[in-house]
Structures are given as structure tokens and as C-alpha cells.
Amino acid sequence: MKVVVALGGTALARRGEALDAEVQRRNIAHAIGAVAGIARTHSVIITHGNSPQVGLLAMQSVSYGGPKPYPLDMLGAESEGMIGYLVEQELRNLLPGKHVVTVLTQVEVNRNDAAFQHPSKIFGPALDQLEAERVSRDHGWSVVQDGMKWRRTVASPEPLRILELPAIKLLSDAGVIVVCAGGGGIPVAASPKGGMRGVEALIDKDLSAALLAHQLKADALLLLTDVEAVYENWGMKGAMPVGETTPAELRRLSFNAGSMRPKVEAVCRFVESGGSFAAIGMLEDAGQILLGQRGTIVRRGESGLDFTNKISAGGDIEFTPERSAPKP
């Protein structure tokens, strides 16, 4: 079975912890320990979050009084390589004899995506108001209030195409465990002069994981995080976990845009586009989630959806199903 496993940001940096190197090593060792059992018997492709790491690198970059701070596409590439190295090392330690490769992955977005006009992705460390005003003024960053602090926001455009997909497929088909599309991938867009150029954005890692699983024709997509399942009425009295469900049933529920909504959208897209199995659940339950025994399990039902591919303005296939009229 070919399985795409997406490790949430908490696999690398748990809430309230410092982003020290040893803390990340320990967290990644824990995460890979949960995934290694699947990789022993299945073809696994691993992707991961990187938002905390990119946020830290960005702040370190502006604090250095030298050259102009690096743009987010370069910081994304830096974090992808760093995290990939740590994941590779743990996989090799736990699965001697297995080949593991990290692929720096560029993901194409549309330069005219509306997300660039409305930066909504919150990331990076919390700042006090004076510091937030300073970095906004000095570097042109968009910042918003997040609780008692302030944080940076950036555009989060739709992923359209994974540039390294042929290489990822070739490696996976050869039995290699591939680590790729970290943090949603390095955001690039077609340049007016031809070719690709990095853009200032962070692509949602879950939507990229769904696109990756879809384009690889994976059998399953697992989004592993720090909660046991998707909850209906999360945070309210009587909140209930969602067990086995369909995309149509999930889409009737409401979820927070800053937490569970992208994950729900990702699993729905994968199943709606032909995938047989997708799930959201706790990292430690990875093996049981794959067996359908834990987490929120999403399978395709008789939903009356029309899975017509549309061509986007960027010339690629949009990964968004169209809803057909209800059957009488």
C-alpha cells in the first residue's frame, strides 16, 4: 500500500516548547518512531510542517544587521533541508537497510491567486506591539493581533503543481522512503520572463499533502497531529469526536480556519478526487489509524459529487471537485 503521511507542526515543535535543536531532535525521534511501523510494511512518503521553523529563521534573519533578510521561499528551502535531514537520520536509525531520501520540493502557485491580496496565514513567534510595529515598518511585513500578542501574516495560495513529482514517484516506486513537500513545499510561480521564481508565501501543508497523495495515486493519506480525531462542536460542551465519515458529511460541519479546517479540506479533496482512504488522528495512533481503528476516517460515499477536473488560470488541473445538483 502507498501511504502519504503528513506530520503536523507539533511533531517538531510542541506547544510551549523552545525551538532548540535538541528539542526538535527529540520530537522528531518520537514522531518517526510512530511512523516507522508503517514504513516497515508499506511504501511511505512523508511530508511535514515547518511554520515555526520558518518563523524563527525569519526573525533571526531580520535581527542580523547585515544583508537584506532572506525571502520566505529561501527560508522554506532552508527549513525543508534541515527538517528532512533530521527525519532521514531517525528513519535510518530505526529502519537499517531502508533507503531514505529528502527531496527539496518546489510547488507552483498562481501569481494572481487572491490570497496574495489578503495575507491570512499566521506564523512565527509572538511579538509585543512595539516590536510588531517595528518589523512591519522596517520590512513591510503584515502583522495581526493574536490574543495578547502580535504575529506575522503572509499569503497562503492554493498549491497547483509539484515540480519534483516525477522524481518523487521514481524514488518511491524504487522502494525509497521519500521525505518531500515539507511545509507545503517551496512556493514558486511562473515568471513573466519565463521559468519559475520564488514568491513570498507559505502554502498550506495539508493541502499540499492532499495534492501529493492525489498525484502519486496513493492508497491512503494520513494527517497526524496532537488530537485524537476531528471533533464536532470543538471547545463546546458536548463536543463529540467524528469517527468514520464521508466528505459530504464532514463538509456539513463547521471548523476553525486556523486549526482543523485545512485538514478537513485536505482529506475531503483527496477522497473526492478518487482516493479511497484518508484520516486525521493522533501521531501515536498512526498504525491503528491506518487500520481504521482510531481517528477520523474518511471514505468516499454515495455523495452525488461530480469530480470534473477544471483547468486553472495557471494552466494546471485544479484540485477542487465541483458539486453536482442533488439527485431527485
Question: Can you give a write-up of this model?
Answer:
The protein has 328 residues and is of the alpha/beta class. The chain has a single domain, classed as Carbamate kinase. 34% of the residues lie in helices and 23% in strands. A hairpin with a 2-residue loop joins strand 6 and strand 7 (149-154). Helix 2 (51-63) crosses helix 3 (72-94) and helix 6 runs parallel beside helix 8 (261-272).
The proportion of residues in beta strands is 15-25%
Radius of gyration: 19 Å
CATH architecture, by name, is 3-Layer(aba) Sandwich
CATH superfamily: Acetylglutamate kinase-like
Order of helices and strands: EHEHHEEEHEEEHEEEHEEEEHHEHEEE
Order of neighbouring strands in the sheet with most strands:
3-9-2-1-12-16-17-15
- What's the multimeric state? single chain
First-residue to last-residue Cα separation: 37 Å
Return the CATH topology.
Answer: Carbamate kinase
Rounded mean pLDDT score: 85
Which structural class do the helices and strands define? alpha/beta
Please outline the major beta sheet. Answer: 8 strands, mixed
